[in-house]
Design a protein that fits this description.
Layout (H helix, E strand, L loop, with lengths): L10 H10 L6 H12 L4 E4 L6 H12 L9 E4 L3 H14 L8 E4 L5 H9 L4 E4 L1 H9 L10 E4 L2 H6 L3 H10 L5 E6 L4 H10 L4 E4 L10 E7 L5 H10 L6 E4 L3 H13 L4 E4 L5 H12 L5 E4 L1 H4 L9 E4 L8 H6 L9 E7 L4 H11 L3 E4 L4 H18 L10 H8 L4 H22 L29 E5 L9 H12 L7 E5 L4 E5 L4 H8 L3 E2 L2 E2 L2 E3 L50 H6 L5 H10 L6 H9 L10
Parallel strand pairs: 1-6, 1-7, 2-4, 2-5, 3-4, 5-6, 8-13, 8-14, 9-11, 9-12, 10-11, 12-13
Antiparallel strand pairs: 15-17, 15-20, 16-17, 18-19
Bound molecules: adenosine monophosphate.
The site of adenosine monophosphate has 15 residues, from α3.
Organism: Flavobacterium shii
Pfam families: DbpA, DEAD, Helicase_C
EC number: 3.6.4.13
Length: 632
Amino acid sequence: MNKFEQLGLSESLLKAILDLGFENPTEVQEKAIPLLLEKDTDMVALAQTGTGKTAAFGFPLIQKIDANNRNTQALILSPTRELCLQITNEIKNYSKYEKGINVVAVYGGASITEQARDIKRGAQIIVATPGRMQDMINRGLVNISQINYCILDEADEMLNMGFYEDIVNILSTSPDEKSTWLFSATMPQEVARIAKQFMHEPLEITVGAKNSGSSTVSHEFYLVNARDRYEALKRLADANPDIFSVVFCRTKRDTQAVAEKLIEDGYSAAALHGDLSQAQRDGVMKSFRGRQIQMLVATDVAARGIDVDSITHVVNYQLPDEIETYNHRSGRTGRAGKLGTSIVIVTKSELRKISSIERIIKQKFEEKTIPSGIEICEIQLLHLANKIKDTEVDHEIDNYLPAINNVLEGLSKEELIKKMVSVEFNRFIAYYKKNRDITNQSSGSERRDDRDGAARPNNNGGATRYFVNIGSRDNFDWMSLKDYLKETLDLGRDDVFKVDVKEGFSFFNTDPEHTDKVMEVLNNVQLEGRRINVEISKNDGGGRRDHNGRSSGGGFGGGRSSAPRREGSGGGFRSDRNSAPREGGFRSDRNSAPREGGFRSSAPRSEGGSDRAPRRSESFGDSPRPRRPRRD
Ligand code: AMP
């Protein structure tokens, strides 16, 4: 018996759950479903988005609806059209084996008469945005006087968006004896007021700590000069080759400007804000869901409905005016059990906001430094090396091999690898040679605490930096990897620092006295059957400037003899990456490269429809217009 079967769900729901591939209930499901099935009760559930709350109320609701009665029996209110459609879709999936259950979505910006017609045909469940629902009630197009269940989803968001009046009016139109289930990530006063006014002795469940951010999200900040904000964003994108992110700006204008700059610089980005038409917004969201857009630059209001799983990073390009909004932003990542990172690019004058946010989310930020050009090159190289290793060969290529072998005849394996790598690396290195590294600011005495590496004196200078072949793919974030390393190596609390986790690999530092131990112990450890490989990175301390502005990692030329290292490990440059800057002559190159033939063009083709990056490079290179929303 799996855990869903123990919750008291019907056979038809269990069958649908099987189809959906849900193996175990999430925490909110485990807590809410038995309570809601057992009796008709009001409930307040504190749960973030992405915790599986739609199913937590959807499953019991479907089981309780009388499919033979075509009257409207349940109303689900949600903040945005996007969420509304998503919930409708989920409920349809959940109820696919229930005969006669109809769900209708009701939201602004679409034909009200058509929605009214759909309801008239007999919809037991209506999923609505508050504004449109109120409108329909006013026009007598819907009757909610018989409903048994009312669900307020993302109640804090709805109230945040100014729907208080509408919600109060709607609830007042519905029968007193109905059950109300309220789901909210936070419990601001307005939500508590609604609960008090309209609910009777609600059961309360909390997932995770009250008012705290999701524990699957780690929080980082980068302290930079205001003039470096945009460059910092680009470098963070370059240092995270698989980034799939929402980048938050404060105003529509900044949102549009940042998106335009990113597009110009060759990144797969798009803007999402209120000045776009609904059709444009739909188009952007479709591309984002399809991962043709890697960086969605959005305002808080426009991003409210974004409910996309597997967002790897939320980037606070600017902090929100209301720091409470930070919680909503960061909740866009770390969903459905996945790990996510919320990044803040911050200037010194805004630094105090970080501490205020820490108090709200009850989690600490890690202070990090913007990677140097050399570090980015290294990351990108290793990323491609991993990718080459994981690439499945399409044997179509066999037909061309004799001709290719002819051309490459006489080159040794080592030479060949070096040349393949150089095809990309030479141009990339040329860019970063030309561009100064960002001077990372230090929060210094303003934020002295024991966060990772932040309080260590001279923590770059004498330290040994390592590369290790485990990363977020193995379910590590910087905190868990640090713990794992400390435990495996039997090291003290502060002995492992500057842990930087990428998808297939990570970097970390120790003091040199531990180097022998790290190399010996870690190279003989297996993680789930895979041998761990650790190497000393030539990129000491991350190759970053230290807090005094001294360069600790060296530059590309001069003193550094081996900047593009690890050639021997089979690396090459990301064939599909179009995020490297275009100025300096190679960005535009990159956009066209996949079609030029040779090494770079073959990789994207062979990857076809996988969820890898070719889609990104194709996105703007091939058809820029549809993905580049214009202002209205
Ligand atoms: P929600 O919080 O309802 O927006 O759900 C977030 C995501 O988690 C959705 O894509 C759901 O389909 C998915 N999900 C919900 N419940 C489960 C579960 N028990 N196991 C795996 N995924 C789930």
